UniProtKB/TrEMBL annotation:
This is Motility protein B. Belongs to the MotB family. It is a single-pass membrane protein. The keyword Transmembrane applies. Keywords: Cell membrane, Membrane, Transmembrane, Transmembrane helix. PANTHER family: LIPOPROTEIN YIAD-RELATED, STATOR ELEMENT OF FLAGELLAR MOTOR COMPLEX. Residues 92-220 form the OmpA-like domain. It is found in: Cell membrane. It comes from mine drainage metagenome. The keyword Metal-binding does not apply. It holds the Pfam family OmpA.
Length: 220
């Protein structure tokens, strides 16, 4: 009686072990099947990885630009300059500063007013700091469409180019590397607002807005 009972117990244990082993075998087969069905798309993985790295790099490179935007805003606020004198914005290339022509220059002149030099000097010092030393600075002069004809400035092309050059020379005088700078005269070819109304009458306020110097600050 006792031996039969022991035999039955042994058979039950063996049945249980066989069932457990069968289950493990089935699970192993299942995972092998899943692995065989999965297919790693290497090219897609590389594309995703490259895109992620690019976005991370872009984010890192954007940080100095964002910091510079903040610091320039604080600088202008500290000098109590309003948007009609110097405006600060951005475009798809970087930051954009616009200097009002009447604020920084006398009419028909390309000489910077002495009283208006401090903001440009402080701007040059900021741009010359190590953090922003790789940024390019493109300066453009703009006029309205009122013709000018003087021995010094035969046309608005010469006047606008001379005003842009005046800002560039000041930046160079205060330490900026000339290789970072460009100056260009646009004359009246890039108006912000119409110089005349629909009937062709001049719009003096608009013409004043179009007389400006634009500074593009571009990260490289």
């Amino acid at each position: 009686m006792g031996s039969r009972w022991n035999l039955n117990r042994r058979e039950e244990r063996e049945d249980w072990l066989m069932s457990y082993a069968d289950m493990l075998t089935l699970l192993l087969a299942f995972f092998v099947l899943l692995l065989s069905m999965s297919k790693i798309d290497v090219s897609r993985y590389e594309t995703v990885g490259s895109g992620l790295a690019k976005e991370l790099g872009k984010h890192e490179s954007d940080q100095p630009l964002q910091t510079l935007h903040t610091k320039l805003g604080e600088l202008l606020k500290g000098l109590k300059l309003n948007d009609t004198q110097i405006s600060l914005g951005n475009d798809n290339r970087g930051l954009v500063l616009e200097l009002d022509g009447a604020t920084f220059f006398d009419p028909r002149s390309a000489s910077l007013k002495a009283d208006e030099l401090p903001p440009l000097v402080k701007m040059a010092a900021l741009l010359n700091s190590r953090r922003y030393s790789a940024f390019q600075v493109e300066v453009e002069g703009h006029t309205d469409d009122t013709p000018i004809s003087t021995p010094q400035f035969p046309s608005n092309w010469e006047l606008s180019a001379a005003r842009a050059s005046a800002v560039v020379r000041l930046f160079i005088a205060h330490g900026l590397n000339p290789t970072r700078l460009t100056a260009a005269g646009m004359a009246d070819t890039r108006p912000k607002v119409p110089n005349h109304d629909a009937e062709g009458r001049p719009l003096p306020i608009n013409q004043a807005i179009n007389r400006r110097v634009t500074i593009h600050i571009i990260p490289r």
